[in-house]
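Hi there,

I know you've been waiting on this one. I reran it after we fixed the sequence typo, so this is the corrected version. Both the input and the resulting structure follow.
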Amino acid sequence: MDDTFIIQRAESILRECKLGVFPLDYLDSKAEYREIALPVGTDIFLYRETEGVNLVIDGNKMYFNERQVAKYCFYCAVMGYEKIQIPDVVETFEIVKRFEGDLQSASSIISELRKKMFIQDFYKMKDILEEKNPSFKIIFYEWGD
């Protein structure tokens, strides 16, 4: 497939998707935030404990009482952020809910397109999408790409 077509298709997906850059495009500029540091790593996952959720980044555990706060931090970790701003729990729930809706929509669009592309062309498009909007890293991370 021609690289020009791949670039045009990636740009079309970017226009079609509502996916913002997480969390920046989802934060309320008037809200108050607390800042936390995240370890940087490539092996990132969540698991539930009896009372809360652990986020593990290359073996470093972070415990959270609220699942949505843990998911917020998970998404930030996948994006590679070392310091993040976390709003209060209620706003974090809303941000994660909105972002996951946008993420699901973008994932569906890309999933359909993936079925119709040669794998090497798909990976070229993946690189373009991630460069233009780093939130696409989350989709491909969850897919194992």
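Quick highlight: The radius of gyration is 16 Å.

Best,
R. S.
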